[in-house]
Every structure is written in C-alpha cells, then in structure tokens.
Specification:
By secondary structure, this protein is mainly beta. It has one helix and 26 strands.
C-alpha cells in the first residue's frame, strides 16, 4: 500500500550518545579473606569506570578498590586465572604479561596492592593448566610445558616461593604425553592429578603405588575435588559413549564409591534460555552442607 511521509526523516541534533558499551565476560570471580572480590575477564569498564581484564571490588561489591585498580591498569597481556595466596599476594596465570619494561610469562605474582612482585619469576615453555599452593608457600604446577626455569619438567613440577624449580621434587610425566587438566591437594600433602587418567603423587613427586583408578579411553577428567572425608569427586567429559559417569566419586584408595550415583538424567552439559548452545561443565565446588555445585 502507498506510504505518505509527513516530513523527511532527519537526525535529532539534541540527542547525543557519549559512550556505547557491550556486555563483557567475567571468567573468574574470587573473594579474598578480607571480603574484597576480584574479577577476571574481557571487560573494559566496571561500574562505569575503566577496569580492563582484572579488577578488585571493595566488600559489598559496589565500589572499586582505587589503589589496586590503578596499579594493575598498566598491565598489558592476557590474564586467565587468579589464585589468592596466604600472604595476601596474588598469583596470575597468563601466557604473556608486561608492566613497563618488565615481562613475565605463564606465572606472575602481585603484591596485595596490585604492584608486580619482582622477586618472583617462573618461566615455562608452554602455558600451564593448574596450580596448587602448599601451606609452605611452594607451588605445584601442572601443564603441557616441556621445561620450567631450564629444568626438564613435563607434566608436574614444584616451584619454590620465588618461582625457581624445587630440586627436592621429582617432576612427573603422564605416559603418552596426555595433557593434564586439573589438580587437588589432599590434607596429607599428596597431590591428585587429573587428565586422561588420574594419579596421586607423594610429596616427593613420585606416584603413590597404593592409589589406582581405571579411566576408560576417550574420557578426560575436567576437574576434581577432595571432600573432607577423603573421598574424591571427578567431573569428566567423554568423546565417545558413556563408559564413565560425568560425575563420579572415588574412595580414598581410588576405587569407585558404590554409594554415589547421579542417575541417567545428569550429563556434563548445561542448557539455559540465555545460552545459544549447551555449555560443558568444567568446575565442581562443595558447599558447607556438603551439597555439590557443578558449573
């Protein structure tokens, strides 16, 4: 049908848009012991203020920590994960990070106020996958890297608090070169390592001969958590079939816990109205009431 215009369309000069934002992603949220919260992601603004990749909020979450955010604002490079240390310092997972003329790869340590800790330096050939902080401040690091600070350490290596390799720890390699995806520390100091298989390392780095888990081919352990009673939760993904449950629990010796079953309706993918496609679960967390969160 014919259309009649009362007047020609024209721009309204009184309408001015100063800034347009698109929603950014937060890949990690971490609450410190003092109630401050750290966010890591692809965002560039938080609460209307510039804050790229890494930001800390004051308790309550409505105000930015001005001193911390000013100190980290000059950092350039990717940040994938933050670990809070007992000293108040922060350990950043990255592949490349620069502050002024200082360059760090893979692991970067910040002082509590967000300034770079120059005393810590750890260098890897490739990115790491996970880190476990021991009570003594040493770091157990897992990944697909071929070396650490010049010492051959494929798979798992332990670092001193300075980032230097710990000579008292025997580097561990998973047979066949399969990647390591996750780790967890038991209260007795032993380290659980997950990937295409699950092994337990003694505090010296040697495999624990008393621990054995039969993981079928095509299964990858995405995350694992040690319960207070010593039982071990495993979150798995599978390329073919259902030879292993998506969420399983092991007894302390590595054998399946017959009292634990999720049922046939549970799988490792989450669907929701706001998701364009199912998202694979990669994280487990235990609540204070022992209920299990999967995300």
């Amino acid at each position: 049908s014919p259309v009649a215009w009362a007047q020609s369309p024209a721009l309204d000069p009184s309408f001015q848009v100063s800034r347009i934002f698109k929603v950014g992603d937060a890949v990690q949220a971490l609450e410190q012991a003092d109630g401050k919260r750290i966010l890591v992601g692809s965002f560039t603004y938080v609460h209307g203020e510039p804050a790229a990749r890494l930001v800390r909020l004051l308790p309550g979450g409505t105000q930015l920590d001005a001193v911390f955010n000013q100190n980290v604002s000059a950092l350039t490079g990717a940040i994938y994960q933050v670990t809070a240390l007992a000293t108040g310092k922060l350990l950043l997972r990255t592949d490349y990070l620069q502050l002024g003329n200082t360059i760090r790869r893979n692991l970067v340590q910040l002082h509590p106020n967000g300034t770079l800790d120059p005393a810590f330096e750890a260098s890897f050939g490739r990115e790491y996958q996970d880190v476990v902080v021991q009570p003594d401040g040493k770091l157990v690091v897992a990944g697909t890297f071929p070396n650490a600070g010049g010492s051959q350490a494929p798979g798992v290596v332990r670092l001193e608090a300075t980032g230097a390799p710990d000579a008292t720890f025997q580097p561990y390699t998973i047979a066949g070169g399969q990647p390591i995806t996750c780790m967890a520390r038991q209260p007795d100091g032993k380290i659980l390592v997950g990937g295409a298989r699950v092994v337990r390392l003694l505090p010296t780095g040697e495999p624990d001969p008393s621990f054995s888990v039969a993981i079928p081919g095509g299964t990858v352990i995405q995350n694992l958590v040690v319960q207070p009673d010593g039982k071990i939760l495993l979150l798995a993904s599978q390329s073919t079939g259902r030879a292993w449950p998506p969420l399983a629990r092991l007894l302390p010796d590595g054998t399946p816990d017959p009292s634990f079953a999720t049922g046939s309706n549970f799988n490792e993918y989450i669907t929701a109205p706001n998701l364009t496609r199912p998202e694979q679960c990669r994280s487990i967390a235990l609540q204070a009431d022992d209920k299990i969160l999967v995300a």
